[in-house]
Design brief:
This protein is of the alpha/beta class. The protein contains eleven helices and 13 strands. The strands form two sheets. A nine-stranded mixed sheet has the order 5-4-1-8-9-10-11-12-13, sandwiched between helices. Strands 3-2-6-7 form a four-stranded mixed sheet. The longest helix is centred in the middle third of the chain and has 16 residues, at 146-161. The structure holds 2-keto-3-deoxygluconate (KDG). 2-keto-3-deoxygluconate is lined by residues 14, 36-38, 41, 93, 140, 173, 264-265, 267-268, 304.
Length: 327
C-alpha cells in the first residue's frame, strides 16, 4: 500500500465495450474497449485532480482484469486493494450508441469476480481507513450479491471506526434489481451517509417518497435528511445540481457543452469533482461547480474515463483560470 489514501472507493470494476458508431446492437460490428465501473471512475477522477485514492475491488485472472489494473495504476490510483480472483472472470458491459432514443446496455457480470467482493477484501486494507478522509460507495455494489452488500457494510463499519466520512452515490441500476429491492438495501446506507448523491428519481426511490412533480429532488433530499442523511446533492443533468444541506439549498448551473458525445460516467465525474473540492477545503458553490465541470468534460468525450479533467483543465473549463489558448 502506498501513502495513506484520502479517499477509499469500493466497487466492481468493469471493462466496457462501446459500439463504434451509432447503430442498434444487432448491427454493430466494432467496439472500442474502455475501463469502467462507477467507483473506479471516481477514483480516477480524484487522481486526475491530484488526490490520493485507494480502489478496492476484484478482477478475474484474465486480460480484462490486467487492463483494469494497469489503467488504474497508470492513472495514479492505489490498486493495492484490487484482488485477482483466479476462479471468476472480470465483469463486462457492452453498450450500443444511438443518435436517437435510449441506448441498450448489456451486463455480463452475474457471478463475476467483482460481484464476489466480500468483507474480507475490506479487512485486508482495513489499515488504510486510519487517516483516510472519505469512503466512497455507490448503490451498485449492494445490488451485485449478498457478499458485495456485506463488503459495503463492512466498509461503512471501518469508516465509522476511524471517523472517515461516507459519500454515497445512489446509482440506481434497474437492470440489476427492482426499485423495491434497491430501497431495502440502499435506504439504510443513505441515511448513514454524510453525503448522498442522486438524481430526483433515485432519491425518491431510496427515500420512499413519491417523485416530486417539480422533479427538483428537494422533497426526497429533505426526507432522507430527516431520517439521518447528511448533505444531499441532487444531480439535475442539464439543469445543474443542488446541494440540500443545513441552510438554504445551493444551486449551480451546468456547464454548457456543444454536444453530448457519451452520457455514461458523467455522474461519477460529478462526484469526483465535488469530493476533490471538499478535500481542498473549498465551499459548497465551488464544489458544485467542480462537479458540474467534471461532468461536462466527461459528457464531451467517449467512455467513462477519457474526459476526466486535470486540475488545470478543470480551471480552464469553469473559468477559474485565464485563457492562454492559441487558436
Ligand atoms: O456510472 C457509469 C457506470 O454505469 C459504468 O461505468 C458501469 O459501474 C457501472 C455500472 O454498474 O453500470
Amino acid at each position: 500500500m502506498g501513502q495513506t489514501p484520502e479517499v477509499i472507493a469500493v466497487g466492481e470494476p468493469l471493462v466496457a465495450l462501446l459500439a463504434v458508431g451509432s447503430a442498434p446492437l444487432a448491427d454493430v460490428e466494432s467496439f472500442s474497449r474502455h475501463v469502467a465501473g462507477a467507483e473506479a471512475n471516481v477514483a480516477v477522477g480524484l487522481a486526475r485532480l491530484g488526490h490520493r485514492a485507494l480502489y478496492v475491488g476484484r478482477v478475474g485472472d484474465d486480460g480484462f482484469g490486467k487492463t483494469i489494473a494497469r489503467r488504474l495504476r497508470g492513472e495514479g490510483v492505489d490498486v493495492s486493494g484490487v484482488v485477482v480472483d483466479p476462479r471468476r472472470r472480470t465483469g463486462l458491459m457492452i453498450r450500443e450508441r444511438r443518435a436517437l432514443g435510449p441506448s441498450e446496455v448489456l451486463y455480463y457480470r452475474a457471478g463475476s469476480a467483482g460481484s464476489a467482493l466480500g468483507p474480507p477484501d475490506l479487512d485486508r486494507v482495513g489499515v488504510a481507513f486510519a487517516g483516510a478522509r472519505w469512503l466512497h460507495l455507490t448503490g451498485i455494489t449492494p445490488a451485485l450479491s449478498d457478499d458485495a452488500h456485506g463488503a459495503a457494510l463492512r466498509a461503512i463499519e471501518l469508516a465509522r471506526s476511524e471517523d472517515v466520512r461516507i459519500s454515497f452515490d445512489i446509482n440506481l441500476r434497474r437492470r440489476l434489481w427492482s426499485d423495491e429491492e434497491a430501497a431495502v438495501r440502499l435506504h439504510p446506507i443513505a441515511v448513514g451517509a454524510d453525503l448522498v448523491f442522486g438524481d430526483a428519481d433515485e432519491l425518491a426511490v431510496v427515500a420512499g417518497v413519491a417523485p416530486s412533480p417539480s422533479a427538483d429532488g428537494r422533497d426526497a433530499a429533505r426526507a432522507l435528511q430527516a431520517a439521518g442523511s447528511g448533505s444531499v446533492v441532487v444531480k439535475r443533468g442539464a439543469a445543474g445540481a443542488t446541494l440540500v444541506g443545513e441552510g438554504a439549498p445551493v444551486d449551480a448551473a451546468a456547464v454548457a457543452i456543444p454536444a453530448v458525445v457519451d452520457p455514461v460516467g458523467a455522474g461519477d465525474a460529478f462526484c469526483a469533482g465535488y469530493l476533490a473540492a471538499m478535500l481542498d477545503g473549498l465551499d459548497a458553490p465551488t464544489a458544485l461547480r467542480w462537479g458540474n465541470g467534471c461532468a461536462a468534460a466527461v459528457l464531451s468525450a467517449e467512455g467513462d474515463l477519457i474526459g476526466l479533467p486535470t486540475r488545470v483543465e478543470l480551471d480552464r473549463l469553469i473559468g477559474d483560470a485565464g485563457s492562454d489558448t492559441i487558436r
